[in-house]
C-alpha cells in the first residue's frame, strides 16, 4: 500500500514537501485554507504586468539543490535586486553606501559620528545596534522612523536580531542588495513554480485545518507537515502570537513604462504613511519597453501575518516554544513544523523550500 502524508498549507514550504514526498511514491494530501495556492509568493498579472499582492519577492540563494529544483520547474531570468531609499530629494542606495553619504547636508556630523563608532556594535536592542553601526544622525535620517512605521513600536523595544542581515553600511560599492551566487525572477511568476511542486499532490483548497481536525483527516501514525501558524493550529489555546501585517495597495499607471528608480523605494519619512513602494515590472527586462506599469505601496499595520515580532524581551519567541512543545507532545501523529508561519521566523523563499524538503526527508527516513 502507498504511504501517505497530510500537509497543511500550499505555500512554498508545504509545496516543496509535497514535491519531495510524491517523487518518492507517497500519496500526499495538501489542505490549503485559501482558494488559490502559493501563499505569500503568489503573484498576479494585469494587462501583462506582474504585481505581488503580498509584497516584493526576489529569489536569491546559495543553496544549489534548491536553485536546481526551482529552475527545473520554472524558467528564471537574471535579475539583480536594487533598492533605493528616499531621503528628502535624494535617492540613496539601500543598503546605504558610505560613498553616497556626502550628498546629505548632515554629512559633517555623520562623518564625525562614523569615526567615533565603537569597534563592536552594542546589541542591547535594535536601536543601540543601529546607532553603533552608523551613528545617531544617519540612524535618525534613514532608520528610526522607517522602523517605527514598519513595526508600530519604538525601535528600542525591538531585539537587535531585527537588524541582523538587514541593516548595513557598505563601503565596498556593491549595489546589489543580495550577494548570493544564484539570483533571479521566474519569467512567468512564482505561481507556476508552486503549481509545478504540487503537480502530483491531491489538493484541497478552501480548507483551513486545525489540530482538532486531524482525528477526521488522518489515520493514527500518519505524518503531518504543518506550515500554518501554531497559535492558529492549536486554536490559540496558549494565547495569540504577535504579528506585524502590511496592506498592499496597487495603482496602475497606464502609459508609463517604469516610474521608479528601482523595483523598491523605501520611504523613511514619518509623514508618508507607506514604508515602501514596489514596481515588480523591474524584474522582467523584456517588459521594460512596454507601456503600463503597476506600483504597489506597502502600508504597515494590517491584521495579517507578515512579520513575526522580535520583541527585545523575547516574550513572543517563548510563546512560540510553548506551541512547539505541544506539537512534540502529540502521541497520535508525527507533527513536523516547516515554513515561516509554523516556525514563527522571517525566512527567505529558499529557506522555506529547504525546510519543506527537510521535513519530507525526515518522513522518508522514518518510513
Ligand atoms: C513582505 C515580504 C517580502 C518578502 N520578500 C522576500 C524576498 O524578496 N525574497 C525571499 O526569498 N523571501 C521573501 N519573503 C519571504 C517569503 O515570503 C517566505 O519565505 C515564503 O513565502 C514562505 O513560504 P511558506 O510556505 O513558509 O509560507 P506561506 O507562503 O505563508 O504559506 C503558508 C500557507 O499555509 C496556508 N495556511 C495558513 N494557515 C492554514 C490553515 N490553518 N489551514 C490550511 N492552510 C493554511 C496559507 O494560506 C498559505 O498558503 C518576503 C516576506 C515578506 C513578508
The third-level CATH topology of the largest domain is Rossmann fold
Low-confidence stretches: none
If helices are DSSP runs of H or I spanning 4 or more residues, what is the number of helices? 11
Globular, elongated, flat, extended or rod-shaped: what is the shape? Answer: globular
Biggest beta sheet summary: 6 strands, mixed
Instruction: Catalogue the ligands.
Output: flavin-adenine dinucleotide
Task: Give the helix/strand class.
Answer: alpha/beta
- The second-level CATH architecture of the largest domain is 3-Layer(aba) Sandwich
Radius of gyration: 22 Å
Let me know the CATH homologous superfamily of the largest domain.
NAD(P)-binding Rossmann-like Domain
Please tell me the total number of domains. Answer: 3
Distance N to C terminus? 13 Å
Biggest sheet, spatial arrangement of strands: 8-7-15-16-17-14
Question: What is the residue-mean pLDDT, rounded to a whole number?
Answer: 96
Total strands = 18
**What's the helical proportion of residues?**
25-40%
By CATH reckoning, the class of the largest domain would read: Alpha Beta
> Beta-strand level of the residues, as a percent range?
15-25%
H-E string: EHEEEEHEEEEHHHEEHEHEHEEEEHEHH
Protein name: FAD-binding protein
Organism: Kitasatospora acidiphila
Domain UDP-galactopyranose mutase C-terminal: 143-346
InterPro entries: FAD/NAD-bd_sf, UDP-GalPyranose_mutase_C
Explain how this protein is built.
With 367 residues, this protein is of the alpha/beta class. It folds into 3 domains: 4-40 and 189-241 and 309-366, 3-Layer(aba) Sandwich (Rossmann fold), CATH 3.40.50; 44-82 and 176-188 and 243-305, no CATH class; 102-168, no CATH class. 30% of the residues lie in helices and 23% in strands. It has 11 helices and 18 strands. It has helices at 12-23, 64-73, 107-115, 126-134, 136-151, 190-197, 214-217, 230-233, 315-329, 339-343, 349-366; strands spanning 4-8, 27-32, 44-46, 49-51, 59-61, 76-77, 83-87, 90-94, 96-97, 169-170, 182-186, 202-205, 224-226, 243-253, 264-266, 276-278, 293-308, 335-337. It has a 6-stranded mixed β-sheet. Strands 12-2-1-13-18 form a 5-stranded parallel β-sheet. A hairpin with a 2-residue loop joins strand 3 (44-46) and strand 4 (49-51). The longest helix is centred in the C-terminal third of the chain and has 18 residues, at 349-366. The two termini are 13 Å apart. The mean pLDDT is 96. Residues 8-14, 31-34, 39-41, 55-58, 208-209, 227-228, 232, 306-307, 339-341, 347-349, 352 line the site of flavin-adenine dinucleotide. The site of flavin-adenine dinucleotide has 32 residues, from helix 1, strand 2, strand 17, helix 10 and helix 11.
